[in-house]
UniProtKB/TrEMBL annotation:
<dbReference type="InterPro" id="IPR051454">
    <property type="entry name" value="RNA/ubiquinone_mod_enzymes"/>
</dbReference>
<protein>
    <submittedName>
        <fullName>U32 family peptidase</fullName>
    </submittedName>
</protein>
<dbReference type="Pfam" id="PF01136">
    <property type="entry name" value="Peptidase_U32"/>
</dbReference>
<dbReference type="InterPro" id="IPR001539">
    <property type="entry name" value="Peptidase_U32"/>
</dbReference>
<comment type="similarity">
    <text>Belongs to the peptidase U32 family.</text>
</comment>
<keyword id="KW-0645">Protease</keyword>
<keyword id="KW-0378">Hydrolase</keyword>
<feature type="region of interest" description="Disordered">
    <location>
        <begin position="430"/>
        <end position="453"/>
    </location>
</feature>
Amino acid sequence: MTDQNKVELLAPAGNLEKMKIALNYGADAVYGGTSTFSLRIRSGKEFDMESYAEGIAYAHARGKKVYSTVNSFPFNSQMKLYENHIAKIAELKPDALIVSSPGVVKIANRIAPDIPIHLSTQANVMNAMDAEVYYDLGVKRIIVAREISLKDCEAIKHHLPDLELEIFVHGSMCFAYSGRCLISSLQTGRVPNRGSCANDCRFPYEVYAHNPESGTTFRLDEEEGIGTYIMNAKDMNMASHIDEILKSGVIDSLKIEGRTKSPYYAAVVTKAYRHAIDDFYANDFDAARYQAELNTTQNRGFTDAYLLSRPFDRTETESNEFSIQYGTHQVAGLVLEDGLTWKCKDKTCVGDSVEIVLPLDATVEMVDNDIGKIEEIDGKYWLTFKKMRSESGKEFECIHSGDLNNILLPTKLPGYTILRREIAEALENKGLTESSTPMKQEQAVKPTSKDIK
């Protein structure tokens, strides 16, 4: 187990900003890397070696850890490239290397013997025999397959008590065994095991019947309400089961998926699971509290996946009616790291009130001045804008998403504080009808990229 036998909370770090946000909102450790040999090429491109080094230094200065992803599968022609990349990453002194291939485990042991090796979920370890093979190769931690059961985790831990086990508790799920899907490769040439999955399982599909003798093709109409998202897995959400997981005593790290997701996701999901973990140890666990926050994020519908139920026992893990839906809230703005100004993420006008979401254990000063008013109402903090004034002194009646001006705050707030509003208000500001608003998780609301930032 980690320090004081307390489970580790591991959050995604898609870029430097999201790394800092995850750490400020309660992560004990983060994972990510540059695009080279990572299974998240798009997010990895937001890190170069310089910014990644800065992120590692930022984490270490706060007593937190960074695990570097080198988890794609190599071709013969890439062996030397892998060696060079691992050597460069090792110079930055991350706290572990996450790899998928036995061959890369051997390379990492040789090139960076002082850095612990974590085996990626891409290796799909589900039993003690496979775990032992990797343990004998020098792997310190195994990120087990999403399809594993808690009972099998207990069996592995019983067989290999010194081997650390890490499980996913939240985020996107793969239609196949994690990453072992060729649909994206077939349709777009983007290979999941090379880090460039196009998420083809999230698309709607039409079904046809073809008669080769007559050359006739018929489109098959599907039952109304069933939908055509036939391969779209719901998002994992294990927050209500954190108490069961921790009571087992066999899990060392709880992992949140989502390096390509938004800064808001990184903040809110990390904070929700931080509270779930801390509340468990304080004998104050309340699943409803954490679910209320998790429901504020965009999602594909939620499922508690397979840790407590076998895949063949489940019938509700796919979201057939929609690919993505609104959460209950929309981000209005993000406070910059210095805490003095904020950037607009959703149209906000003079007179608007937005909820203040603070980093973990942060506080806010109640003020009332010419810029705005901050007050506490029913246990939540609210900011009402009286003026929209930029650093340069220019004033606005409204600020729109994408505006590059840094807007002044009525008082200094903790860096990366989030400003948000309920989705109904956000949609109304966009001129959309309230009928578009999802009031329940089951509703099939499909936002476009221009609707939600």
